């Protein structure tokens, strides 16, 4: 472990005025990292440096930006095991999940390195004689990125790679729970030759993010996190004309039709609801099962869930790692207490787990007889907790699926083409899966939700082009 991770401002490492510490959620005796907390002066200097570096970075040839991003992707690939181990120690996801996250970061940088030279425009004839029209895409400017702890490497990467590819400057403010893995991204950028001011790292808690939002030199904000925080950011940014991209929560339904492949549906429920300890915005939290197969589905789900092992994220026998922090364990436990007070019927789990090391371990939990009036089904728990609803028929199942202000991800298991097509049309979510878990995404297509789950352009794919660039229309006469 390095003695202390420093903030990265204008191409240099800065110590800050305070320090923070992160311990392994699987083993509280393991100090993962100590990190410098950015000061208000660091924030001001970072914004000033980004504004200064913007003109030269946006003027740099697309090939030069491509080469830098490609080097970052190659170095991440070379260090996959090392970075995955750090991620697992710091965030608590299992090693296989951590490796998958790091690998996705590799692919993201490689993909957007190519997109740097493919930013399109259009050349059109005017409706007026003797005039040509060019429509160009240009960088939006200085982008503040406030990222969460649940995907602490891939989310900063899938925000940073397109932003830099299209000529923007980036100031990253990661969660204070996962500063060490974010620091590694800053080090990768530095070593790859990113010019001063183009990519910067400010570590600390919400006070740092709040100070960043106060700076007048910010052109855009990309935030991933809770709906409550997202609404606060919007209330401050929108009046100032700051471009916003908000990826918020979900209360994602998985519909299991009467003709579904039972084994695949149960497997998808377990992966979508319990893996990563349920700490995913796309996690399946409401399983809606048609009456004909409901009881058999419950029997299979409980039996399979009972076989899952909760434990140290670095242990190869572990299926589900710890929750990320004591506060998160308290939050999830609070929802379990709410469910007990409301008389919600529990079929499995709902207890903390003791292991050889001191960690924040919690059983996967299954509730039955789901109703949307229950707190556990209205609010995002962000833990390994799922509710099963009984639906009389397909139409009722679809109504339950859409009965939420959230609209991030929704899925259906069915062997009937017409049911699948009907669900795709009826779902109000931004992403729909068929015979797949509600979790998982590709880097070359848009990611994001509707309703209370998101605001502004989507992330990745064409969504990234829309957010990180702005159009300029040019009229040329003879």
Walk me through what this model shows.
The protein is α/β, with parallel strands linked by helices and 478 residues long. It folds into 2 domains: 267 residues, Aldehyde Dehydrogenase, Chain A, domain 1, CATH 3.40.605.10; 183 residues, Aldehyde Dehydrogenase, Chain A, domain 2 (3-Layer(aba) Sandwich), CATH 3.40.309. 40% of the residues lie in helices and 23% in strands. The chain is built from 15 helices and 22 strands. The protein has a 7-stranded mixed sheet with strand order 14-15-16-13-12-18-19, with helices on both faces. The protein is globular, with a radius of gyration of 23 Å. The protein starts with 6 loop residues before the first strand and ends with a strand. The model has no long low-confidence stretch (mean pLDDT 97). InterPro entries: Ald_DH/histidinol_DH, Ald_DH_C, Ald_DH_CS_CYS, Ald_DH_CS_GLU, Ald_DH_N, Aldehyde_DH_dom. Pfam families: Aldedh. One of its GO terms (molecular function) is oxidoreductase activity, acting on the aldehyde or oxo group of donors, NAD or NADP as acceptor. Keywords: Oxidoreductase. This is Aldehyde dehydrogenase.
